[in-house]
Amino acid sequence: MGAYILRRLLIAVPSLLGISLILFVVLALAPGDPFGELAANPNVPPEVRAALRLKFGLDDPIMTRYLRWLLAMLHGDWGFSFASRVNVDTLILQRLPTTLFVVGSSQILALLIAVPVGLYAALRPYSLGDQIANTLAFIGFSLPTFFTGLLFILLFSIELGWLPFVYQADLPGTGLAWAWANVRQAIMPVAVLGFHQAASYTRYVRASALDVARLDYVTTARAKGLTEGTVTRRHVARNALIPVVTLVALQIPVVFGGAIVTEQIFRIPGIGSLLIDAMLANDTPVVMAVTFVFAALVILFNLVADLLYGWLDPRIALR
Amino acid sequence: MDERDLHDLIGRVRSGGLSRRAFVQRMVAVGLSAPMAGLMLAGNGVAMASDIRGSYTPTKAGGGGALRLLWWQAPTLINPHFAIGTKDQEACRIFYEPLAAWDADGNLAPVLAARIPSKENGGLAADGRSVVWTIKPGVTWHDGKPLTADDLVFTWEYARDPATAAVTIGSYKDCKVEKVDDLTVRILFDKPTPYWSDAFVGNVGMVLPKHLFAPFTGAKSREAPQNLAPVGTGPYRFVEFRPGDIVRGERNPSYHLPNRPYFDTVEMKGGGDAVSAARAVLQTGEYDYAWNLLVEDEVLKRLETGGKGRVDVVYGGKLEFLLLNATDPNVEVDGERSSLKTTHPAFSDPKVCQAINLLIDRKSIQDYIYGRTGRATANSVNGPERFVSKNTSFAFDPGKANALLDEAGWKKGSDGIRAKDGKRMKFVFQTSINAPRQKTQAIIKQAAAKAGIEIELKSITGSVFFSSDPANPDTFPHFYADLEMYAFSMSQADPATWLLQYVSWEAATKENKWQGRNISRWRNAEYDAAYNAAQAELDPVKRAALLIKANDLVVAGNNLPLIHRAEVSGAATKLVAPRSGWDNDLAFLPEWRRET
Question: For B26-40, B48-62, B448-462, which range has the lowest pLDDT when averaged over its residues?
């Protein structure tokens, strides 16, 4: 087991290096200039822009810049944002709690919907309930979040006026009213993301439970005279959820990475909106740090998912 | 009435022999606008009170609750001398203040200054080489320390140091600031400077506290904790800042203007897009004010029917214009197209340029595309009023355009396209991707087709078109096309910097890595002479005349103005938010209040 983990971690190193190199080169070759806006301002002499480029080392060859970035990253220095003139890690840490709260809640909501609905659908396949669940699931993951997001805003904010559509990370105030205000503003984004995710989870839970429900030991359990509830909970669900657990583990990086489109629509100051703003401003160090951390998380959680799988299902050996 | 009569009249106003009002009435009678007449007096030492603060009614500070501002581009930093875009300047404006701000008519209104320098109060030197500014006594920083002349001297040192890499360096590098006494500084210029009100004024003029920034100048400037937690003199004190998200402030109880500010807290939320920002103010009323609504007027009108807010329009110096390439984009000379060594086969002939000008239906572009957010114009300089030419006009006249082209020797061929010396009139017309621009392109293309000119439209992503990458041929400064269209802002209430973009020595070329400002590469000796003369002319009336002449020469050449675009914002119905197109939206934030 220890050797397996070590091997996987060692394999991760070249992958991360490769990813970072590709990211860096693509960003360096992409058109755009972090100080382009200054070029359009006649009051800023070109020398200022040249001085800024020099100061941030933008005129060096790509490989020099890459190596400099890599060394700094190894020292735990994530870089310095051109646009905000602060350290990138400060920016990311400032936004992480919001993203964890919103995207994390949406994942929980998705599981709360998907597990019961998926199990129900699997245990009564092709019943009316299953048909409805299937149809809704298809609609759910066919509709993109930018569409459902706008639809929700139109309905709940504009027509009904129930919910605000501008999210505030740190509302001033305390007590119940404050907690309620926080929940109120999170309802729409969490629902939009949650429903979308729930749709695909439901399909997985249903498929996996269908497989398990047909197995002999389930029939045995029923033959023993166990109640339907016990069979579902203790025998079907526990085994059917193994693939779902790994799926959830693979989704964890997304919880950290934020939801670009939804965050933009609801003005949620999370990692996703940080990334898109940084891209629009050509703020390469921020884009680099966010995407690289995301890549590292994906690799890490792939490993976690594999380990979890092995631990939950001893029939699978890790070699 | 000639210039001598004018000076005589101004002298009488100064000595009290003629009232201000009588002077203005006489000027209006001879066809000058009232603001222009007022400015003549101001420029000649007859002080003019800016009345932007006069209509303020609340009798005590505070009590106005929260002011909620929505900026669809979020501020990313909060040091005014690092502000990359106006979004950052606006956030700084909540906390920091300059000596004076530009009002809607392009006049100076004192903020931290006790008064606006003029010849009469001894502030302006007769030789145009120095200005004396006096600070209002009793102004304190948010931490209680007094504001003194040392802070001004420090701000100048800070901004002009190339190692600081301040974006305001252009306003400070060519002058010298010296302390006269605790409340007075003198700005010295190398040469007579008619446009003296740049340093310490408006969006580049915000003053920094010496006692906090002194340890962080030059290369260390980026380490200053105040870059993220400003301490200024402004109407609101700093509470919180999250880059790219939100800025919060609370009322400054020791603010230097009486009974101000009205609101208890201010919050600037950033992010999202312009349409939903408009919606949050105009339709749902979640926010009080939304900045820079780059939204088509049709959409704004629909949102306005919600009744929660109104669209507010002010005019500054933003101009949408069409450039006709004076050089040939299809010939490569020394690895460079549109080289100064070439001339354009068609646009080197003024008659062709004139014909193109007559083929632009500006009225339709205004009516059907820009609506309330722009007005058709024939001028490059569209404000302040004292600099606007009355000699120009525009017309849509395809018949006359056809006649001009015939006259110039461009004859229609069998396919209906004009040609001369074997060259056909087939032009590439480029602009950035932006719905109103594509519609404008279509209007121009259609009219040109009727005159036998074939136009190929090209639209380029904004991030490429507006970048300054010397290696990318699709940027606007390369101008590897026959025509191009975009907008630019004259960001100061004085056209001198703006008009620099038409002088011949500013032509964008490979040699200067396309950093020159003259993009059309139109070169005209008469224009250069008028521009240079204006730079040294200290008499405001003569100077305005020279700048107007410069404008008239420009628009008769290869630079065709289309639309004078407004600064559009959304405001809650009851919000009183005086602002100016010549300064930041929040330049007069202390005057903002809610009607009861």
Answer: B26-40
**Nearest CA to A306 among A260, A231, A245, A255?**
A245
Minimum Cα–Cα distance from B227: chain A residue: A85
Residue B45 pLDDT level (bands cut at 50, 70, 90): very low
Dist CA A279 CA A261 (whole Å)? 14
Nearest alpha-carbon partner for A123 in A244, A217, A206: A206
Q: Which residue has the tokens 């259609």?
A: B446
pLDDT category at A319 given cuts 50, 70, 90 is low
The pLDDT tens digits for B441-452 are: 999 999 999 999
Task: Dig out the tokens for B526 from the structure.
Answer: 């008469």
Report chain B's terminal Cα–Cα distance, integer Å.
49
Closest CA to B361 of B311, B333, B401, B405: B401
**CA distances for B505 relative to A19, B166, B195, angstroms:** 46, 26, 21
Q: CB of B362 within 8 A of CB of B443?
A: no
Render pLDDT for A134-179 as a digit per residue (tens, 0 to 9).
999 999 889 888 899 999 998 998 888 888 888 888 777 788 888 8
Dihedral, CA of residue A84, residue A87, residue A93 and residue A99, to nearest 10: 40
Identify the bridge partners of residue B310 per DSSP, sorted by sequence position. B571
Q: What share of chain B is helix, strand, coil (3-state, %, to 5)?
A: 35, 20, 45
| Packed helices B34-43 and B540-555: angle between N→C axes, nearest 10 degrees | 130
Count the alpha carbons within 13 Å of B48 in the hemisphere toward its beta carbon.
25
Q: Indicate the helix (H) or strand (E) that contains A188.
A: helix A175-213
C-beta separation of B179 from B149 below 8 A:
yes
- DSSP letters for B477-538: TT--SSEEEEEEE--SSSTHHHHGGGSGGGB--TTTTT--SBSS----HHHHHHHHHHHH--
**CA distance linking residue A200 with residue A114, whole number of Å:** 8
Residue of A nearest to B228 (CA): A86
Task: Write out pLDDT tens, residues B329-358.
Answer: 999 998 899 999 999 999 999 999 999 999
Predicted confidence (pLDDT) per residue in A191-242, tens digit: 999 999 999 899 999 999 888 888 888 889 889 888 888 888 888 888 888 8
A124, A110, A126, A106: which is closest to A202 by C-alpha?
A: A110
Helix B20-29 vs helix B3-15: angle between axes, to the nearest 10 degrees? Answer: 160
Answer yes or no: are the C-beta atoms of B394 and B382 closer than 8 Å.
no
Check residue B36 and give its pLDDT: 61
Chain A CB contacts of B498 under 8 Å are 42
C-alpha span between B108 and B98 (Å, rounded): 11
For B:361-400, CB contacts with A below 8 A are none
B70 contacts A269? CB cut-off 8 A: no
Choose from B68, B81, B174, B245 for mutation: most chain A CBs within 10 A.
B245
